[in-house]
Amino acid sequence: MKIVLLEPIGISVKELQILEDEFSANHHKLIVYKTKPENETEILKRTSEAEVIILSNLPLSEKIIESSKNLKLISVAFTGVDHVPVDFCKKRNITVCNAAGYSTHAVAELTIGMTINLLRKMVWGNNQTISGKSRDGFLGSELYGKNFGIIGYGQIGAEVAKLANAFGCKVLAFNRSEKHANNVTFVDLETLLKESDIVSLHIPYTSDTKDLIGEKELNLLKPTAILINTARAQVVDYNALYQKLKNNKIAGAALDIYEKEPPLEKSYPLFELPNVLLLPHIGYATNEAIEYRGKIVFDNIRKWMQGNPQNIVN
Asked: Each residue of 59-75: pLDDT tens digit?
């Protein structure tokens, strides 16, 4: 069986050699590409004979799936799979697995870090200091005692709730299916948006969640509220968000995800605003998360080969 690692996913050379030896001993061939393919033609060349494909967030088109005649499994080194045509794969009996849970702690910790950064204006403070300036009468806000709203109560949402509780927040949560948890008050979306001081998004991007937070929903936020998005850009209407931030209708926003992967164009509208924190999609990017991700990705393949697949998304 040919297993193709289509792009680098942060596994060390030493570990890759161990994996190559393991699969070879079981009469499989692991083909490792150490660079990201430059175009679809290159992807087609790499995947044409693959029975298993491993990729991270590289978009995979229906054309590629259709051209990969032997393909049986796609192991995605990511939690979200909206860059893979999952329904099309299902029609062709191709299993798609993800790396669920690999970055739970990383994203949750970053969420809290982004929140504190906005409340205390740490980037502004850094710039003031290195420019030889003082705080000029600045006062920030504390996380303690705030209403922390979580939209989407999966693994990451639950971890954020635990951390927010540790900081002395009252946690409100909205989830599309019924959930129960200690020290968390589950409410409808409207109530969460109206009452929260911090609103943090932890939902997947689907046809149902596209622009879930649009102009109508943003209008419900307090003028002092901040929005944190480490989920998917498409769940928020960024044009509406820009207008609210520009006109100081909400206090701030911290984003780690955009309509496309950074680098963004120099003219990206949010760059001009002083009340935003913009990160280049680093929520999952810790040494610990990347190491754990590699383990999950290859465990997905082993389990599938044994007839006991895990982390199936289709």
From this structure: 999 999 999 999 999 99
> For the domain with range 104-278, which CATH number is right: 3.40.50.720, 3.30.70.260, 3.30.160.40, 3.90.180.10?
3.40.50.720
* Domain 2-102+287-305 matches domain 104-278 at the CATH topology level: yes
Is 281 noted as a catalytic residue in this protein?
yes
- In this structure, are strands 95-97 and 170-174 parallel, antiparallel, or unpaired? unpaired
Active site residue 27: no
The predicted-structure confidence for 162-171, as pLDDT tens digits, reads as follows 999 999 999 9
Say which CATH topology domain 2-102+287-305 has. Answer: Rossmann fold (3.40.50)
Residue spans of beta strands (DSSP E) within the chain: 2-5, 29-32, 52-55, 73-76, 95-97, 147-151, 170-174, 184-186, 198-201, 226-229, 252-255, 276-278
Given 281, 291, 293, 302, the catalytic residue: 281
Mean pLDDT value across residues 180-200: 98
Catalytic: 176? Answer: no
* Marked catalytic residue, from 46, 202, 232, 293: 232
What does pTM read for this prediction?
A: 0.90
